Amino acid sequence: MRWMSLLEVIVAGKDCLVAGDSCSSDESCSPRLRTLRQCVAGNGNMKLGPGARSQCANAVSALLSSPLHGCQCKRGMKKEKNCLSIYWSLHQSVIHGLNLVENYPYETVHKDYDYVRLASITADAEAGLTTVNRCLDAAKACNVDDTCQKLRTEYVSVCIKPTAKSGLCNRPKCNKALRKFFDRVPEDYTHELLFCPCTDTACAERRRQTIVPSCSYESSEKPSCLTQMQICKADYVCRSRLAQFQYDCAPSETSPTGCKQDNYGTCLLAYTGLIGSTITPNYVDNSTSSVAPWCSCANSGSKQDCEDFMGLFSHNICLRKSGCRASHFIPLVCLSPFLF
Ligand SMILES: *[C@@H]1O[C@H](CO)[C@@H](O)[C@H](O)[C@H]1NC(C)=O
């Protein structure tokens, strides 16, 4: 078990930036990468003639035996966007009917977050329900950690500050600061803050306000989810965060954990990776623990596609159980409307 994960790290640990550099300095690899980038230009929607198609197919099959194959990126890394653009140049080719093995953009972070640590806590879970305010504890814990305290102060101040010009907050800056917080602060702190269990509306409202919704995403009218999803997919970072979320939080009806990947920790990590993007998810109100992005399927062209997207958040057993676990509660308690 142990050495398997280690092996996985070694195999999957190829950085697309490094792979891209080594490809560019190789005279057989670099023209193929250039060809491929042309093939996927315009989001891969460009109509290609039969000649171009076969050129693209050739480039892909040649690149499958280059360092680019199987490369990934690190979330929050420097030049993350460049790295992801290289990742997607190969993976976007799927659009042209050239299938690649199942893959996902970000390197797996191996941490025994849920199973080891939480297993020892579940025994005390119910006792903790009435005696401890975990949301308060989480905030205190964050304050004694330098990085957590600094980056939390940073996003809060950016997100609540009205700009002199418009009197409104600076949304892009707020989202950037939120992404920085969730990318850099260890999940022990961020997950406690965001998934602390609540038993009353005051607590739940405070938890909902954690990511300053009024600045980070709220607007007078909810946009269409499909529009938001298209905006997201046009951005390498957002598209990658979504792909990672779909992979790590994929539900399973046959797995006892409810997750296809059987890992609550990586599911939550992928969930927080979406905060600060066009599809930022959050608690929808202060009387339940339902989560969703700020968008609606009311006027969507394709109702089914839209509902499928919403379902990733609102009807996802894997995500629900992951949030439950993070709250240190046994599954039964998680059925309460207040818990995740
Ligand atoms: C809960 O949400 C409702 C509706 O948004 C709001 O009116 C109410 O003040 C909130 N409750 C608390 C305790 O903040």
From TrEMBL:
Superkingdom of the source species: Eukaryota
Q: Which stretches are annotated as coiled coil?
A: none
What SMART domains does the annotation carry?
GDNF
**Signal peptide feature range:** 1-19
GO MF = signaling receptor activity
InterPro entries membership: GDNF/GAS1, GDNF_alpha, GDNF_rcpt
Keyword annotations from UniProtKB, A to Z: Cell membrane, Glycoprotein, GPI-anchor, Lipoprotein, Membrane, Receptor, Signal
Looking at the record, the residues that make up the GDNF/GAS1 domain are 16-95, 135-215, 225-318
Pfam families from the entry? Answer: GDNF
Q: How does it sit in the membrane?
A: Lipid-anchor; GPI-anchor
PANTHER family according to UniProt? GDNF FAMILY RECEPTOR ALPHA-4 (PTHR10269:SF2), GDNF RECEPTOR ALPHA (PTHR10269)
Q: What is the protein's name according to its record?
A: GDNF/GAS1 domain-containing protein
Q: Which organism is it from?
A: Knipowitschia caucasica (Caucasian dwarf goby)
